[in-house]
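job 3f2a | input accepted
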Amino acid sequence: MFGYLLFLLLLLPCLAFSAWASARVNSTYSRYDRVQTRSCMTGYDTATRLMRNRGVTGISVNRVEGKLTDHYNPGKSVVNLSMSTYGSASVAAVAVAAHEVGHVMQKHTGYVPYKIRNVLVPVANIGSRLALPLVIVGLLLDLFWEAAPYPYGQWAVYLGIALYGLSTLFMLVTLPVEFNASHRAKKMLVEEGILTQEEVPAASKVLSAAALTYVASLLISLLYFLRFALVFASLVRRD
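job 3f2a | predicted structure (239 res):
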């Protein structure tokens, strides 16, 4: 009971930080979406120019519904820019567009953490969906079928913890990938003259606010994994 209360006490500030990070990225984007770039280039213009001038071909730039739904899909070779980014010539829009091109360049140059993250994507997706249900089912099986000839419940718990561990590892690898994409974005924007040195700090604030959401997700994931690890340790001790 004490362990669970401690878990809740640690989880609540992490959830609060996650909510604050989400609100901050939205407010920061909205603030700098009202600041037009001196180059007057839109998010679409930015993405296509950055890739063209770096010899990247075969990647299309599409517009998708929503706000801050921007993402690079390497499987389909497309950079998807949200409605708020695609046609906007704001500092916020070009920063986000350049960030997605940063991911394109990571693949183009063979950036190792990006490769690792892509390898982990299928397992991480499965882990994030099945880990918690498997742990719960496993604990119930272990509770009611303790006398069964095989430890079905423990196997389910161990599998769930392993899957969640892989999804946590995915989030851990995601951090350097996202920070590196933002670093590349700012460098490319200045090199191409899309942003001036005076406009870069505003772009940095947008990208830094977005990065906080990944930090928050990692903290929550690590906390849950620690909780699951303690469950694993208790089962091992009991055996």
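job 3f2a | Strands lie at 60-64, 71-73, 78-82.
job 3f2a | closed
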